[in-house]
UniProtKB/TrEMBL annotation:
Pfam families for this protein: IF3_C (PF00707), IF3_N (PF05198)
Function: IF-3 binds to the 30S ribosomal subunit and shifts the equilibrium between 70S ribosomes and their 50S and 30S subunits in favor of the free subunits, thus enhancing the availability of 30S subunits on which protein synthesis initiation begins.
Protein name: Translation initiation factor IF-3
Species name: Sedimentibacter saalensis
Domain of life: Bacteria
NCBIfam families: infC (TIGR00168)
Length: 124
């Protein structure tokens, strides 16, 4: 029942609750159809990755970006690699350059513990 709080005397409308719930569900389903779900795909690598392996990962990232997903690129450092963070940044920027046809850099490379991450967003 809907009640009009400002009316004098108070007025209510009797309605079919099942029909009301059905209409609400239909509206909700219709609004979900228009939404685009954006997933975040993650690609992991090390700072001493080979050129061909990097190209393969860039190709996979390009597929994700074409589908409209964001890509999180992570370079993982282990042991002595932690002393060479600049090598990881070079790898990430090279990766961004390889996928520049399909992406723009959303977040520049940042260090979080033993990982360096960068986000790529699909071009509009």
């Amino acid at each position: 029942m809907n009640v009009s709080p400002t009316a004098e005397p108070p007025v209510c409308r009797i309605m079919n609750y099942g029909k009301y719930k059905y209409a609400q569900a239909k509206k909700e389903k219709e609004s979900k159809k228009k939404q685009k779900v954006i997933n975040i795909k993650e690609i992991r690598m090390t700072p001493n990755i080979e050129e061909h392996d990097l190209a393969v990962k860039a190709k996979n990232a390009s597929k994700f970006l074409e589908d409209g997903d964001r890509v999180k690129v992570v370079v993982r450092f282990r042991g002595r690699e932690l002393g060479h963070m600049d090598a990881g940044r070079v790898v990430l920027m090279q990766f961004a350059e390889m996928t520049s046809e399909y992406s723009t850099i959303d977040k520049l490379p940042i260090v979080e513990g033993k990982n360096m991450t960068m986000f790529l967003a699909p071009k509009k």
